[in-house]
Amino acid sequence: SSLSTAAEPWPENAALYQQLKEEQILLSDNASSLAVQAFLQMCNLPIRVICRANAEYMSPSGKLPFIHVGNQVVSELGPIVQFVKAKGHSLSDGLDEVQKAEMKAYMELVNNMLLTAELYLQWCDDVTVEEITHPRYGSPYPWPLNRILSYQKQWEVRRKMKAIGWAGKTLEQVLEDVDQCCHALSQRLGTQPYFFNKQPTELDALVFGHLFTILTTQLITDELSEKVKNYSNLTAFCRRIEQQYFEGHEKDSSTIAARSSKKSLLR
Amino acid sequence: MAAPMELSCWGGDWGLPSLHPECLTVMAYAKFSGAPLTVNTINNSWRAPKGDLPVLVSEDIVISQPAKILNFLRKQKYNADYDLSAKQGADTLAYIALLEEKLLPALLHTFWIEAENYCSVTKPWFASKIAFPLSLYLPGKMSREALNRILLTKGGPPLYSLTEVEAQIYRDAKECLNLLSKRLGTAQFFFGDTPTTLDAFVFGFLAPIYKVCFPRVQLQEHLKQLPNLCRFCDDILTCYFRLTVSGYSSAGQDTADANLQKLTQLVNKESNLIEKMDDNLRRSPQHPPRKLTTLKLAAGGEESSPMSRLSP
């Protein structure tokens, strides 16, 4: 089957599925979706973004986003990168072995710290859960289904947090972890345009997805986005990628200016 | 800096100072940074304040996770990362994340979930270090926690069955080992000639895989094909822990120590006996001195034979 994957060229009607942008999608899923969109833009592969309330249930792994290409469905950035590579497109072919190791390590850092912090904030911080997450997550469904589904999801996420030792952390500690992660990313990026100098890779896409979402999402407080704003080269990085890969595109794809409920444009 | 610091850890075997990756990481970091730690190989995990080892106790402060312990040591001026550039510090964080995401699940699986390994090696070893009746409960609890962690972080659909998850985590772990090997190359440590935090973490994760003798060893076999990583572990063991790396189990060392202790006691007992006899003899003057000498010689003779048994 991987042979047939490679044989078919990238179709024009490739689609990326995520939750409803205005009412439903949460911080972490938005970040993941934006990362995939950025990656595909960097590979010059066209993709339409389709928003569906039941996107999470359509996904083969339960995680978002997923792409529907030809007759294949692939979810999450890692497998999507592999899939795209099998079709002959890759952003990291020019890297040597040590650089590839570094790239993978930094991608794990983003998943390990940034994504987990986003999940923590969304599902374990009581104020955020009550005022933002529960209303948004269950918004397409009638009562009591909306509450049931969001409590179920919350329980799942909290179990995972407990297993990896994050349940005992306070919000301050989580924000400190975010700061540590941003500090590391900022140091690694330095004054270069991209993480591996001239050409963007999947790492750039992933970092952009998360940082941009954090910067442009309005939460209860600005503490999270302030952590990122402390690092000017990171905000410049996000602006650069936004301008290069997202501006001039339709309002439906990739977001940025079109969000009404959560918006604070990059300044 | 003057406050004494005590580290409670799981003990070691198969040539390692500890079998537990987090304990090993902390012990290695302490050696690298020159922190004077008294290491207690604790054998009752419930007495450790948070229940999880390793635990550092310094005066009234109790710290329980490796990252926090290392932070504490750094604040006490025991810093192994002093010479690192900011970018190298960033790389350290990234590689540690890689270890936790890609290597740790397979490590946990090899130790706690693979049935043959768990039943024949892990469970008996850990149970032997804990007092009854905790020994009946704690290894099972650690095993369940390991399974839970793997399933929650790696086990979402479509990997519905444990066997599929297993295949994926071992693939990830082998890839991680390959990446580490490429990153290390021919250097002695990950950032030049002196070991740092990253070396402590890598050592903590690799050494148990490398040294512990399990019946199911796919990860160990893969690691043995990466000679620079094996050399890395051996170097740290010989230079910083002064343990032989011939695979000589410390159980052998313990028996020798026990023998030595027994023999020392025997010698002490005999010298006490001799003293008593001396007193008796002195009190009864009709005994000719020759007997004294005979007695001493006899005692000396007995003394010498246990000594000769001491030869390694």
TrEMBL record, chain A:
InterPro entries registered for this protein in UniProt: Glutathione-S-Trfase_C_sf, Glutathione_S-Trfase, Metaxin_GST, Mito_Protein_Transport_Metaxin, Sam37/metaxin_N
Short name of one Pfam family: GST_C_6
Keyword Flavoprotein attributed: no
Gene3D superfamilies xref list: 1.20.1050.10
Keyword Mitochondrion: yes
Example GO biological process: protein transport
Alphabetically ordered keywords of this record: Acetylation, Membrane, Mitochondrion, Mitochondrion outer membrane, Protein transport, Transport
Annotated ranges, domain Metaxin glutathione S-transferase: 179-241
Domain Mitochondrial outer membrane transport complex Sam37/metaxin N-terminal residue range list: 33-153
Recorded superkingdom: Eukaryota
Main location: mitochondrion
Compartments reported by the entry: Mitochondrion outer membrane
GO cellular component: SAM complex
Assembly description: Interacts with MTX1/metaxin-1. Associates with the mitochondrial contact site and cristae organizing system (MICOS) complex, composed of at least MICOS10/MIC10, CHCHD3/MIC19, CHCHD6/MIC25, APOOL/MIC27, IMMT/MIC60, APOO/MIC23/MIC26 and QIL1/MIC13. This complex was also known under the names MINOS or MitOS complex. The MICOS complex associates with mitochondrial outer membrane proteins SAMM50, MTX1 and MTX2 (together described as components of the mitochondrial outer membrane sorting assembly machinery (SAM) complex) and DNAJC11, mitochondrial inner membrane protein TMEM11 and with HSPA9.
Family of the protein in this entry: Belongs to the metaxin family.
Protein's job: Involved in transport of proteins into the mitochondrion.
PANTHER family: METAXIN RELATED, METAXIN-2
Protein name in UniProt: Metaxin-2
Gene designation: Mtx2
TrEMBL record, chain B:
Pfam families in the cross-refs: GST_C_6, Tom37
SUPFAM superfamilies per UniProt: GST C-terminal domain-like
Domain Metaxin glutathione S-transferase residues, every copy: 173-236
Cell compartments where the protein resides: Mitochondrion outer membrane
InterPro entries in the cross-refs: Glutathione-S-Trfase_C_sf (IPR036282), Glutathione_S-Trfase (IPR040079), Metaxin1/3 (IPR017410), Metaxin_GST (IPR033468), Mito_Protein_Transport_Metaxin (IPR050931), Sam37/metaxin_N (IPR019564)
Gene3D superfamilies: 1.20.1050.10
BP terms from Gene Ontology: mitochondrion organization; protein transport
Keyword Protein transport: yes
GO cellular component: SAM complex
Keywords for this protein: Membrane, Mitochondrion, Mitochondrion outer membrane, Protein transport, Transport
Domain Mitochondrial outer membrane transport complex Sam37/metaxin N-terminal as annotated: residue spans: 23-142
Record family assignment: Belongs to the metaxin family.
Protein's recorded name: MTX3 protein
